[in-house]
Amino acid sequence: MSDIRNPLVTTGSPNANASNRRGLSHYQKGRLLLGGQYAGLTLWLIVSLLPPVILLAAAFNETAMFRSPLALLTMSEFTLANFTTAFRAGDFWFYFRNSLIISVAAVIISVVVCVPMAYGLNKLRPRIRSGLSFAVLAMRFLPHVVLALPLFLIFVNIGLTGSRLGLLLAHLAIHIPFAVWMMVGFFENVPKEMEEAAIVDGCGPWKLFWTISLPVVRPGLNALAILVFIMSWNEYLFALFLAGSDAQPLTVGITRFMGGVEAGAQYGVIAAYASLIVLPVIFFALVANRYIVSGMTAGAVKG
Amino acid sequence: MQNNSLNRYTRGWYFVLPGLIAMLLIVAFPLGIAARFSLHDVFLYDFNNQWFVGLDNYLRAWSDPLFLNSVKVTAIFTVANTLGCLVVGLLVAFLLSGKRIRFKIGWMALFLLPFVMTPVIVGITWRLFMWEPDFGVINQLLGMLGIEGPYWLTDSSTALFSTALTNAWHLTPMAILVLYAALTTIPEETYEAARVDGAGPFQTLWYVVLPMIRAHILFVSIIIMTSAFREFDMVYTMTGGGPGRSTTVMSILAYNRGIANQDMGMANTIAFTMFMIMAVVAWLYIKVYKVNKEASA
Q1: Residue A264, Cβ density class (10 Å: 0-12 exposed, 13-18 middle, ≥19 buried)
Q2: What value does the mean pLDDT of chain B take?
Q3: Residue A109: what pLDDT?
Q4: In chain A, which stretches have pLDDT less than 70?
Q5: Rounded CA Rg of chain A
Q6: Angstrom distance (rounded) from CA B289 to CA A130
Q7: Which of A44, A65, A248, A266 to mutate to test binding with chain B, by most B CBs within 10 Å of its CB?
């Protein structure tokens, strides 16, 4: 991530003064460019952060309605009352429990199932491997509604609607292709020579996976766990179809709360509720962004 | 060591099987059910009565103005998202990869926030605080410039633009991080060589850098395209598909047909059409990617 080069920035090479055409010294030009770069980055930073920051500001202010969101940023009417209302009237902990159980279970199962599968895919004969890879890729691009409809029909038949188990299965249908595709990218970084040397030394198939390959893809495991957690935590469409009334996660909780009488039009309480929901994922982005980045780019360089 | 004996020795199938069975059960099987229902007349809460109607649902869909409208809306939404994210993502990634820019990881972490934010919350936040016509940030800023902003989400001529922009805001970090990672792989000598040949920054970007990260651009376009194509959560929480049918993307139409109209046959037909479009995209991606790889090898 460090040591990045960019043509926008002239380095201090001795003959660079030759480009001094507009009467600016080479040094001044460099400063100007750097300033421009920082200005561009800052502008995008403001665009990126304004909505979440306003959401937080609204959550901590007394009346968020009929006031400019920009005025909220002054925090002139600081209060925590919105959060207590969100907890009490919004049934927060009920939805929170469902979200947490489903997300954690999804992470565990995804890791246990997808990591070996990605490892094994790389070991199959090229033709079978590329066939299976295509299937995984096609499933990774699957629109969620394509699965939500038939899963709803199936779950009605086997009595799984309104259960966390059913919702978990639906999540896994999205996570498994995603996670396998991502982990294949990580396993390709394992040097072939390392595995071959281990085989020559008499290493068995299981030991080869567990002690040789797996340690190399450790960062990939973190990335997988974090990304699957975020995807499960953020999921809404499956919940809408399959959660019934007992298994509803937070994303359904807040939309129901918004439509309910308690919320009315209390933007502050809605903002508090929403802030609580995004808190864990924002925490991950700030603390574990390294893994999110490596996970999202893992599939980029392979075919 | 011979590749084949390595394959046999490592017992790849044993590792693949659990995941493969899971995928067959929870992905392939439901897909088959979706395909089957798309050929039947079947209604919600009345699954025991099904009539095989062949391709009738598909024919009905393609002569239904609502469906055709949703295809158009989805296409505009998807293309706008892909282009918007690519251009902004490339620009930001290029700026961030500057040699003298400090705290790169810090910038990146903050840039990621829109991407990890729950889509439902993104929708709610933008609806209540950004697009809100009287007090929302966008119209406040426009007001400072003396422009009276429209009723973004409740005006059918601006609703699609507003939802697409919100979704692009959510997806752009994806483009930034992939393209940034790609830019860091370009060696210093390339830039040196371009400079010696007298190329300015933007010529360097266009003629030297872009061709080198072609594969990454392709990858990130596909990822953004597929996410925008299937988007449901954000649009649904922002407009519910309205006003009128101006933001009824295919996902929302499938949901409405299945749940509100209880026409599960038609819902599955729309959904399965979406799946077939995505399967073609996946197939094309692999084709183009292989060509790309051979060309650059």
Answers
A1: exposed
A2: 86
A3: 94
A4: 1-24, 64-67, 260-265, 299-303
A5: 25
A6: 13
A7: A44
Q: What is the dihedral of CA A243, A273, B248, A142, to 10 degrees?
A: -50
pLDDT at residue B200 above 70?
A: yes
Angstrom distance (rounded) from CA A249 to CA A34? 46
Cβ atoms of B270 and B253 within 8 Å: the answer is: yes
Closest C-alpha among B219, B134, B34 to residue A267: B134
Q: Which residues pair with B41 in a beta bridge?
A: B51
CATH number of the domain that residue B196 is part of: 1.10.3720.10
Strands B46-52 and B40-43: antiparallel
Contact A291/A221 with Cβ under 8 angstroms? no
- Average pLDDT along chain A: 82
CB B258 within 8 A of CB B44: yes
Count of domains observed in chain A:
2
With CA atoms as reference, the chain A residue closest to B32 would be A150
Nearest to A172 by CA among B255, B30, B34, B269: B30
Helix (H, G, I), strand (E, B) or coil at B42: strand
Q: In this predicted complex, what is the ipTM?
A: 0.89
Last residue of a domain, one of A51, A79, A107: A79
- Which residues of chain A have a CB within 8 Å of the CB of B17? 120
Rounded Cα distance between B131 and A209, Å, is: 52
Looking at the domain assignment, is residue B59 inside a domain?
yes
Q: Rounded mean pLDDT of B34-56?
A: 81
| Alpha-carbon dihedral A197, A200, A206, A211, rounded to 10 degrees | -30
User: Tens digits of per-residue pLDDT, B133-188?
Assistant: 888 888 888 988 888 888 998 888 899 999 999 999 999 999 999 999 888 888 88
How far apart are alpha carbons B126 and B129 in whole angstroms?
A: 5
The two three-digit tokens of residue B20, written as one number = 């493969």
Position B12 in a domain:
no
CA distance A3 to chain B (A): 7
Query: Do A73 and A97 fall into the same domain?
Result: no
Cis peptide before B243 (omega within 30 of 0): yes
- Structural domain range at position A120: 85-301
Return the residue in A48, A53, A151, A238 with the most chain B beta carbons within 10 A, the one to mutate for interface testing.
Answer: A48
Answer whether residue B3 shows pLDDT above 70.
no
